[in-house]
Every structure is written in structure tokens, then in C-alpha cells.
Design brief:
Distance between the termini: 53 Å
CATH topology of one domain: Rossmann fold
Largest sheet: 7 strands, parallel
Shape: globular
Bound molecules: NADP nicotinamide-adenine-dinucleotide phosphate
Number of strands: 13
Order of helices and strands: EHEEHEHEHEEHEEEHEEHEHHHHH
Strand order of the largest sheet: 3-2-1-4-5-6-11
Radius of gyration: 21 Å
CATH architecture of one domain: 3-Layer(aba) Sandwich
CATH superfamily of one domain: NAD(P)-binding Rossmann-like Domain
CATH class of one domain: Alpha Beta
Length: 339
């Protein structure tokens, strides 16, 4: 099976490549050659920028045909249109990496199924829906068979560890030092985090399968945790002290610094619970084999080795918020409830 990945060296892509290798696939990746390549030998590299559409499309025309193309880095309709021009009639199966942010997160049915109406409230989610439509139109018109994958949060070496407020690069250091950790709301928001190698199995073992053509799949973890538990388990995985959790109202956090908390506003304040049952039914090789704690240890080992753990001293904002909350509590004649 001759497979091309657009992307290929990032978090999810690396998991897909590993899983494709276990299938004995002949793999080529296309990227700019800027991101650290953790793929090892045996993977062919095409270098270029997918946003330079004429050159990208000429490169793909010259590269010939593929059994499978997996597009990991399409975020905008113009990129999707370019991909259709590049691969129509030149690939046996096209897999588009979308996102669960296409659903819009205001969940009334938990877990969210692939049939749930898509009403995204972020520009990211809206653009991904527009891309999905372009690819499904190409599928319907016979240009190429298309499958859509919608990951939720996926982590692993090459990236970081998120927290409930977003992608705070100081989170790991705060946990290790036992500093207070702010969790929005009452800490009971629900969340799923999947390890990149496990998510990679879903993409890689759907590749080339006709029963996946024209379908969309959530590709998410089995486990659902509250944000409080997420934070506690992350600390335990690192051998850090049990975290001191401080609950602050989401509306207060947004009022204090909306730009800082965009991810909280658009994603993390909502329950994020999605069903993976359809993917498990159609792609039985998809298994959540990596315990969350093991995934955290591997990711943070990579962060440590690449000096990606940022000192909490560089960003005193979270401590200032906790201090403000302590003063507020004291003014109300209460002691701050740190859990
Ligand atoms: N991680 C999550 O939690 C999550 C959740 C939902 C959906 N997703 C979706 O997953 C996809 C990304 O997965 P990922 O974050 O794991 O990244 P990835 O695809 O695994 O890594 C990004 C790759 O794209 C290449 N690249 C970036 N810009 C490029 C360009 N202009 N031209 C050519 N190559 C380019 C990078 O290499 P170079 O820098 O060398 O070019 C790298 O190989 C996205 O579609 C995202 O919407 C991720």
C-alpha cells in the first residue's frame, strides 16, 4: 500500500506512520522539513509548502498516484480545494483529518455521535466543516473516495501537556512544584485525552478499506475524566505532589483576560465527550492501548529532553489570580477552598 501523508512529522502523524509501518506500507511524507523528524529510516520525504498551491499541485502531479493520501494539515477551504485539484483521480482513498470542534461542544447528547449536527462556534471548527464539505463533494462527484477523521484532544511526544485553561506551557512545572492549579467552573467538566500512537492506529487501519469510504469517524479515548481528575492524574503520573486545585468561575476568567483564555472560551469550558463506537466497529485494530499516565510520562520525557518545560516563574498570572481569589474569600469572611 503506497501512502502519502501531508504533514507526517507532527504528533498524530508520527503515530499514524508507526501504525502504517506495522502494516508494511510504503510511506512518503510531505512537509517543509522544519519539524523534528522522529520517524526513523524507511520513510520517504517530499519537501515543500502546501500553501504554495501551484508548486504543491505540480509536485503532486509529478509524484504520480497513491493508494492512500492522508491530509493532516488542511485547515482552510482554499487548502481543501487545492488538495482536491492535486489528488482527484490520483488516489485510491483520501483521508482528511478534521476535528471534534466541528460539533461546537454545546453537547446535549453525551457522548457525541458522528451524526450529531455540526454547529461549530470557533473559526477553526467552522473552517474544518467547510473543508469536510469540499472533500465530501469531491467524494460524491467521484473525484476520490474520502473518509473524515475527527480527533479530540490528542497528545504525545512532539507536543505538550494541556491543562484546563488551555495550553499553558508552565503547567508541568507548576505541578512539579506543588503550585496551585486553577481549574475553571467546579472542576467537573468532562474530558477525553487520547495518546497519539493509539489515534494513529485508527487512521492507519482505515486506510484503503472500502467500507470506510464516505464515512466520518470520531477518533477519541475510551476514558472520560473530570478536569479535576485529569489534573490529579497528570500530577500523579509525574510523581508530583497532589495538586492544590483552585476553582474559579469561567466567566470571571474570561472577563479578566479573554485573549489568554480563548481555548477555554471555545473548547475547554464545555464537556468534551465523543463516541468512538463507530470507529471500533469499522476498524477493530483501533485500540486505546496506552494508559493515560504512561502517555504523560513519555510526553514529559520528550519535553524534558527538548527543554520544553517552561518555568512557572516566567508567568506569574496564575499566582496573581489565586492571590486575588484568596483576598476575595477573606473579604467575604471565608477561607479559600483549595481542594
Ligand atoms: N492534537 C490534537 O489535539 C488535535 C485535535 C483535533 C484535531 N487535530 C488535527 O490534527 C491535525 C494536526 O495534527 P498534529 O498536531 O498532530 O500535527 P501533524 O500533522 O502531526 O504535524 C504537523 C505537520 O505538518 C507539517 N507542516 C506544517 N505546515 C506545513 C506546510 N505549510 N506545508 C507542508 N507541511 C507542513 C509539519 O512539518 P514541517 O513543520 O516540517 O513543515 C508536520 O509534519 C490538524 O489537522 C488538527 O486540526 C489535532
Amino acid at each position: 500500500m503506497k501512502v502519502l501523508l501531508l504533514g507526517g512529522t507532527g504528533q498524530i502523524s508520527t503515530g499514524i506512520v508507526k501504525a502504517l509501518q506495522s502494516r508494511g506500507a510504503d510511506i512518503t511524507v510531505f512537509n517543509r522539513g522544519q519539524t523534528d523528524n522522529r520517524l526513523g529510516p524507511g520513510v520517504r520525504q517530499l519537501t515543500g509548502d502546501r500553501n504554495d498551491f501551484p508548486v504543491f499541485e505540480r509536485t503532486m502531479a509529478a509524484a504520480g498516484t497513491w493508494d492512500v493520501v492522508i491530509d493532516m494539515i488542511c485547515f482552510r477551504p482554499d487548502q481543501a480545494e487545492s488538495a482536491v485539484r492535486a489528488f482527484a483521480g490520483r488516489c485510491g482513498h483520501f483521508i482528511f483529518c478534521s476535528t471534534v470542534c466541528t460539533y461546537g461542544n454545546t453537547q446535549t447528547i453525551i457522548p457525541t455521535l458522528e451524526t450529531t449536527p455540526q454547529t461549530p462556534h470557533s473559526a477553526y471548527g467552522r473552517d474544518k466543516v467547510a473543508c469536510e464539505k469540499i472533500f465530501l463533494r469531491a467524494h460524491g462527484g467521484g473525484a476520490m473516495p474520502v473518509t473524515i477523521f475527527r480527533p479530540s484532544h490528542t497528545f504525545g511526544p512532539g507536543g505538550g501537556i494541556i491543562n484546563n485553561l488551555g495550553w499553558a506551557p508552565t503547567f508541568v512545572d507548576r505541578l512539579r512544584r506543588g503550585l496551585p492549579i486553577i481549574v475553571s467552573g467546579d472542576g467537573h467538566g468532562l474530558w477525553q485525552s487520547a495518546y497519539a500512537d493509539d489515534v494513529g492506529l485508527g487512521f492507519a487501519f482505515a486506510a484503503g478499506h472500502t467500507h470506510c469510504f464516505g464515512e466520518a469517524y470520531n477518533v477519541v479515548a475510551d476514558e472520560v475524566v473530570t478536569w479535576d481528575d485529569y489534573t490529579r492524574r497528570t500530577a500523579a503520573a509525574l510523581g508530583a505532589p497532589a495538586p492544590r486545585l483552585v476553582h474559579l468561575p469561567t466567566d470571571l476568567l474570561l472577563a479578566l483576560d479573554r485573549p489568554r483564555f480563548t481555548a477555554l472560551e471555545e473548547i475547554f469550558r464545555f464537556h468534551g465527550v465523543y463516541s468512538n463506537a463507530k470507529l471500533k466497529r469499522d476498524v477493530p485494530e483501533f485500540r486505546l492501548a496506552t494508559p493515560y499516565e504512561e502517555g504523560v510520562r513519555r510526553t514529559v520525557a520528550w519535553m524534558d529532553a527538548h527543554h520544553k518545560v517552561v518555568s512557572a516563574d516566567t508567568d506569574p498570572f496564575e499566582d496573581r489570580l489565586v492571590e486575588m481569589w484568596e483576598k476575595f474569600s477573606a473579604a467575604c469572611g471565608r477561607s479559600l477552598a483549595i481542594k
